[in-house]
Amino acid sequence: QTPKGSCLEAVKIAIDAGYRHIDGAFVYFNEHEVGQAIREKIAEGKIKREDIFYCGKLWNTCHPPELVRPTLEKTLKILQLDYVDLYIIELPMAFKPGDALYPKDENGKFIYHETDLCATWEALEACKDAGLAKSIGVSNFNRRQLEMIMNKPGLKYKPVSNQVECHPYFTQPKLLEFCRQHDIVIVGYSPLGTSRDESWVNVSSPPLLKDPVLNAIGKKYNKTAAQIALRFNVQRGVVVIPKSFNPQRIRENFQIFDFSLTEQEMKEIEALNKNVRYVELLM
Ligand code: A2P
C-alpha cells in the first residue's frame, strides 16, 4: 500500500530517529521492505534484532487454526526474520480463506467464514510456544470479544495488547479502563487522525490536527498539534503508532519525551472526545 522503496527508507529513518516499535501487516504489502530496513540497520551495527519490536498481523482470510502458523511463517519468510515480537489477530471477523484477501460474492458482499475466534487464538498460542511470536494479542476487539478469549476454557496466554483506534477525538475511555484492569496494553492506531483517505476514512469527523485546543497547548510547549496528540496518549499509558513517510515528520513524532502535559491539560484534551471513529471498519 506504499510506493516501492518508500517504506524501506521510512523505516530506516525511523530507526535512526530512535523508533524501535514497528507496526506491520501482511496486508500492507511492504513487509519485505520493513524486514530489509531492519536487517540493513542490524548490519550497520545501529541496532540488534532484540532492540526491535516488530508487530505482525493475521489477516481475516487466515483465521482457520490450521492456517495460522503457515501464515505467520510466510510473514517471517517475507521479513527474513526468525520471529515477530508480537503477532495479533487483525480483526475479529473471518473471511473465506483463499487467494482473494477481500472475498466478495456476486452482489459485492463480503464472504465471511465461520471460524471460532477461540480456535484461532489457540493457534496463536501454539505459535508463541513454537517461538515464532514472542507475544500474542488482538486488534479491533471490543470488550465482549476480549472476554470471550479471556474466559476460554484452558486459556494458556491472554492477549497482551489490543490495537484499536485511539486519539483525542476517540479516546476509548471504557475500553481503556477495562484493558487497564486486565493488564492489556492498548495500542492506538491512527493517533494523528489518519491520512483522511476517503476510500477508508470517515471524513465527516473534522481533522484532528486542526483542533484549536491541541494547537493552543502546543504553542505553550513549542510543540505541534501532532506532538500534543501523541504525548496525550503516551501519558495515559496508550502506545502510539503514528505513520509518516516524511523524514521531518517522522523525527517530529518522536520528539515527545522532553515535556509533559499538566493534569488540567490532559482533562481538556480528554474532553475533546467525540466518540466518532475515523476508521469505521464497516465490514
Ligand atoms: P505524511 O506521511 O505525509 O507525514 P495516522 O498516524 O493517524 O494514521 O496519521 C497519518 C497521517 O498523518 C499521514 O497522512 C501523515 O502524512 C500525517 N502525519 C504524520 N505525522 C504528522 C505530523 N507530525 N504533522 C502532520 N501530519 C502528520
From TrEMBL:
A biological process (GO) of this protein is: bile acid biosynthetic process
Concerning PROSITE patterns, the annotation shows: ALDOKETO_REDUCTASE_1, ALDOKETO_REDUCTASE_2, ALDOKETO_REDUCTASE_3
Active site residues per record: 28 (proton donor)
Can you tell me which residues bind substrate? 113
Q: Which residues form the NADP-dependent oxidoreductase domain?
A: 5-273
| Gene Ontology molecular function, alphabetical | Delta4-3-oxosteroid 5beta-reductase activity
Task: Name the Gene3D superfamilies on file.
Answer: NADP-dependent oxidoreductase domain
Q: Which InterPro entries match?
A: AKR (IPR020471), AKR1D1 (IPR044483), Aldo/ket_reductase_CS (IPR018170), NAD(P)_OxRdtase_dom_sf (IPR036812), NADP_OxRdtase_dom (IPR023210)
Spell out the residues of the site Lowers pKa of active site Tyr. Answer: 57
PANTHER family reported for this sequence: ALDO/KETO REDUCTASE (PTHR11732)
Which family does the record claim for this protein? Answer: Belongs to the aldo/keto reductase family.
Q: What is this protein called?
A: AK1D1 dehydrogenase
Per the UniProt record, the lineage of the source organism begins with: Eukaryota, Metazoa, Chordata, Craniata, Vertebrata
